[in-house]
Design goal:
This protein is an all-alpha fold. The chain has five helices and no strands.
């Protein structure tokens, strides 16, 4: 025990916090991240649900309708994964499994982000195909996907690799 009466941090995180305190902190950080992603996916998914009821939908080519269906399913899955941490917390709250809950909620959030990436890419493909019908659309979508991958995964992994000791 330290002078403050708390267990010493055995994982050398630079913080003097117990496992429960660490779980509380990580949960608070995670839920803030989920709120941002959740809002975006819910707005996108809500918009996608309305497309099928527009007059233009009936005139879409078969390929575009298939892209739309895939996009809606991806959006539904992303929404489920990003809302999952809330349900997880609600169902296990008070059961003394917060560290494990944080770990599972983090996994759900990561899966949700990957599904959101796929949803946004698919939605962009559909919109640009309908808007332009040009041959450059796949290249433009691939460029935006590369940008997402850079911002969402490459830069964080680079920071993680260069600045952590674990």
């Amino acid at each position: 025990m330290s002078a403050t009466g708390k267990e010493a941090d055995t994982n050398n995180t630079g913080r003097n916090e117990t496992e429960e305190e660490r779980a509380d902190r990580k949960w608070g950080e995670l839920i803030q991240e989920v709120r941002v992603a959740q809002t975006g996916v819910q707005i996108l998914f809500g918009f996608l649900l309305t497309v099928v009821f527009t007059p233009k939908y009936a005139n879409l080519a078969g390929t575009d309708k298939n892209i739309y269906i895939v996009t809606v399913v991806l959006g539904a899955c992303a929404t489920g994964a990003l809302i999952g941490p809330v349900s997880l917390h609600r169902l296990v709250s008070g059961r003394r499994v917060k560290p494990q809950s944080v770990e599972w909620a983090s996994r759900l959030t990561f899966v949700g982000l990957v599904l959101l990436l796929a949803t946004m890419t698919s939605a962009l493909l559909l919109v640009l195909r309908v808007a332009t019908h040009d041959d450059y659309v796949p290249w433009l979508v691939a460029s935006v996907l590369a940008w997402y991958l850079l911002c969402w995964f490459f830069v964080p992994l680079l920071v993680r690799q260069r600045h952590t000791t674990k």
